[in-house]
Amino acid sequence: MLPFYEVQAKDLRVFHLVARQLTFPAHLHRNIEILYVFSGVQYLEIEGKAYAVHAGEGAIIFPDMVHRYYKQGEQPADAVLILCNPQLLGGVFPDFEKFQPLTPYLPNEKIPEEAVYALKHIKKKDAFAVKLGWIYVIMSHLLPHMELRQRKRIPVPDMSKKMIEYVADHFTEPITLDSLRG
């Protein structure tokens, strides 16, 4: 199955997964996605590489990385999943569109207790400013443990790819043939 482009309606969303493994087909989006597993195991594939994320481990998926979640077995998982528009973090962290991690997976020993504290305390019902504050704490403690590399952006002559990128950048604006031609 080909990945699809997911347009996020909100700039910041928090999901608490209780006693279930998440399943979601291959997709990509402009947001940063943070997964942390409290208990059990969650399976995911990022850029074609499979990961089993166990209790105390996590992953940070950068913008435009193809990823999917899948079940394997019946072991339940308790986890938190956070989606955040990288523009909310601008100026403080690296440009998430220009860099990507060598590995998005974070083993237990690379997740400081301050980040775990924030991951346990961020709530869906929190005010936007409170959630954003927790995101800053989480990213401030996790990013130093990730090796980043310059993202390779290869020009693609494929018209479908150009249209998807255009729609992602301008989805709130009216589309005309003249604007697509440029």
UniProtKB/TrEMBL annotation:
Highest taxon, organism lineage: Bacteria
Molecular function terms from GO: DNA binding
UniProt name for this protein: Putative transcriptional regulator YfiF
Organism, scientific name: Paenibacillus mucilaginosus 3016
Keyword Transmembrane helix: no
Alphabetic keyword roster: DNA-binding
GO terms for biological process, alphabetical: regulation of DNA-templated transcription
Coiled coil: none
Domain AraC-type arabinose-binding/dimerisation residues, every copy: 20-103
